[in-house]
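HUMAN: You are asked to prepare a plain-text protein record giving the amino acid sequence and the backbone structure tokens, both parts labelled.

ASSISTANT:
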Amino acid sequence: RDYTSNITITLQRDHSATVSLSDENDGRLTVSISDAVSELETVKFTIQTKTALPSFSQHQMSVIRCHEEFIWLHDMLSENPEYAGYIIPPAPPKPDFEVARDKLTRVTAAENTMTEDEYKKLRKELESDYLALFKKTVAMHEIYLLRIAAHTKLREDSNFRVFLEYTKDLKVRSKNKKEIIGGFFKSMTKNVDEAMLSGQKEKDEFFIERKAFLEDYHNKIKETTKKSAALSTATNALSVDYMQVAGCLALLSTRDASLSRFMAQAAITFESLQKLQKRISTDEDLKLSDLFKYYQRETQAAKSLLYRRGRSLADKEIAEAKLETAQKKFKDIPTAEAYLEDCRIRFESISDMAKTELETFKNRRLETYRKHLVDMSELQIRHSQSIITELNKGLDLLKDL
């Protein structure tokens, strides 16, 4: 039987445990994902909105959205030229439960090869992993909405209002092969253009410093993300080792009557350690790995802002060259002057917005890192104390046998 053929998980959110990576909201627009349902092909999010903004037709709204609709909203914001000077919040990652579902299916298929107790423990462990992944997916989608809601300009976007207000399906579909290929070539074109603009002469010290910093920071955050993922994997592997040791001790308790009580108690202690180690792995994943992954994506969004500004500067320089040519030929001078003025206004506008955005990005990043690292340190202390307590408890019980 296929355990995942009709799997459906409903999650009621506990916002006291919500991870915040967004700007502080002024309270005029609050958005949250109150619950979500995971089905075989998709995840459906229930989004609750309360607002005092006059641009919205209602003060309280509730809609159901899927991941593809989040991507649609991100595309609409990214393609709007009015937002060229803003850091567009990175789109939430696509939900991917295939690995977890495959593990659940394999465990179910191997049910007859395990004892009932082994089967229940293993399936409970896998279901716990699936639920943790599900919660993480929901949190990343909520963070995306919070970032937009906290932005004084982006939250007024008409497409964002439609996303939050329109109660029916937005009829958004996944991209077909032609669109995917088109997106790939568009990305390649942008990469080539970025390479050509890399030699651009920048006169503004602020942007010279920020560009160098973001390039270096992005490379380091990618490496840090990999190391953090390796740390979480190693911590989780230790949890698996504890579980295997507990299983072996439990088996030994049935083979030697003289050591049965000792082995059984030792097995119980290792089972408790396994649960604690699993919590440590989950916290490292949430407080470190997810944090680094998010800022890897947002740093890329900040780099995209600098690219758009660089493209605007290049357009202004081209317009200046065209005006010089027009003046030498005494031809189409008013047209060239008007075009240069448009390019100049656009470049200055993007530059002014970009300075504010990059400063906000810096302050938000520092505050978020500070909070997460403090939280992680406190969790590590609590987990260490719990492990010591469990070990002492186990040793006392073994001494009494």
About this structure: Confidence is low (pLDDT under 50) at residues 1-7. Residues 260-329 form the longest helix (70 residues). The CA atoms of residues 228 and 289 lie 5 Å apart. DSSP finds eight helices and four strands in the chain.
